[in-house]
UniProtKB/TrEMBL annotation:
Keyword Flavoprotein carried by entry: no
Name under which the protein is recorded: cysteine-S-conjugate beta-lyase
Enzyme class per UniProt: lyase
SUPFAM superfamilies referenced in this protein's UniProt entry, alphabetically: PLP-dependent transferases
Top-rank taxon: Bacteria
Keywords: Lyase, Pyridoxal phosphate
Entry EC number(s): 4.4.1.13
Length: 398
């Protein structure tokens, strides 16, 4: 099937969060506005999913939902085919999105005052679910090596595990905001330390199915010596199939004692399974729409190269960290040698909205995260407009 990745969907009037967060003083209907923030894609829904949802809504009641056997088997088969990991259907717990799942993990497996370690910079919701529930955030900064990629600082990690009463480790695999795909050897080393210090690792793998061509994603489960180790993996079709608004995710918990404790926390918190449309769309995505996912990866690869070449030609002081997965570019502008608030003001003035790097942690202070998941010609137009609008400012800080 030939897929359309060239049409531009106007999302300004349908409640899109990407457009809703534009400051009130700016007209959201302006053609001069470029929001490249929220991590979803500006591509039409896969036709296999759209057709299936229309048919489902036309012939079924939209009542309360529970996982079907076909749904669980679809999840198992997809992970085995693409990630070479065999899981059991009973490991799967459905949740309405990954953030509620992260929050429930913190409540279920730690106590107030316990340490929860994160590798920073990282997805801002990690900080939120830890701090808001009275746990101690343990910051383990990532290092940038000569290859330009983030790497774990294992010496610092072990020191923190020894001294900060860490009970849980949040892992972003692949990494958000940089798109780093962690190596199998690094994950094995992490798993070994987690076992030694009796820490539960919760691995958010929502971007794993968008690993770009030429890179190899390792699911955290593959790093374990056996499934008796304390590990939970969170997955979802939301990013790879562009169905984030349907709020459906899976929490994979091999150990029955951990799974029962997690399910008890969900029940106590009033968190139910994902909605019926979210689960059905996920099942269709995993069983019938994978050709669409593979096609979109080619578009993302093209867009990423376009973006890297653009910043290289525009001004070498913008440094794009190599992206190995997903559709988010992590761009360093520290070499402009200006105050980060000034940079933020310039972006606002030229109507380009990107994610402020400081929201990902102090290490992101001079970065911004840019979403390049859009039709290639639209990305070219965005970047051309960006060049025209920011060039006078760049010349002023030479």
């Amino acid at each position: 099937m030939n897929y359309d990745f060239t049409s531009i969907s106007d999302r300004r009037k349908i409640g899109s969060r990407k457009w809703a967060i534009v400051p009130e003083e700016i007209d959201p209907l302006s053609d001069k506005l470029y929001p490249m923030t929220v991590a979803d894609m500006d591509f039409d829904l896969a036709p296999e999913i759209r057709t299936a949802l229309i048919d489902f809504v036309s012939h079924n009641v939209l009542g309360y939902s529970a996982m079907t056997e076909s749904y669980k088997q679809a999840v198992c088969n997809f992970l085995e085919k693409w990630h070479k990991v065999c899981i059991e259907p009973e490991w799967i717990v459905s949740t309405p999105g990954l953030v509620p799942a992260l929050s429930a993990c913190v409540r279920a497996f730690t106590q107030v005052g316990d340490g929860v370690l994160v590798f920073t910079p990282v997805y801002p919701r990690f900080y939120q679910v830890i701090r808001e529930q009275g746990r101690k955030l343990v910051d383990c900064p990532l290092e940038i090596a000569q290859d330009g990629l983030y790497h774990f600082d294992f010496a610092n990690l072990e020191s923190l595990l020894e001294t900060h009463a860490v009970k849980m480790i949040f892992l972003c695999n692949p990494h958000n905001p940089s798109g780093r795909v962690w190596t199998a050897s690094d994950l094995q080393r992490l798993a070994k330390l987690a076992k030694e210090y009796d820490c539960l690792v919760v691995s958010d793998e929502i971007h794993a199915d968008l690993t770009l061509p030429g890179n190899e994603q390792t699911m955290y489960f593959k790093a374990l010596a056996d499934f008796d180790e304390k590990a939970i993996v969170l997955t979802s079709a939301a990013k790879a199939f562009n169905i984030a608004g349907l709020q459906s995710s899976n929490v994979l918990i091999p150990r029955s004692d951990l799974r029962e404790k997690f399910q008890a926390e969900l029940e106590a918190s009033g968190i139910q399974a994902a909605n019926i449309l979210g689960m059905y769309a996920t099942e269709i995505a995993y069983t019938k729409a994978d050709n669409w996912r593979e096609a979109v990866l080619q578009v993302l690869q093209t867009n990423y190269k376009l973006l890297v070449d653009f910043f290289s030609e525009l001004d070498s002081r913008f440094e794009v960290m190599p992206t190995q997965a997903s559709f988010l570019a992590w761009v360093n502008c520290e070499k402009l040698h200006v105050d980060r608030e000034q940079i933020k003001a310039v972006f606002m003035a030229i109507c380009f909205f990107v994610e402020d790097g400081v929201s990902f942690g102090e290490a992101g202070s001079y970065y911004f995260r840019l979403n390049f998941a859009m039709p290639t010609e639209e990305l070219k137009a965005c970047l051309q407009a960006f060049s025209e609008r920011i060039s006078p400012y760049l010349h002023s800080v030479d």
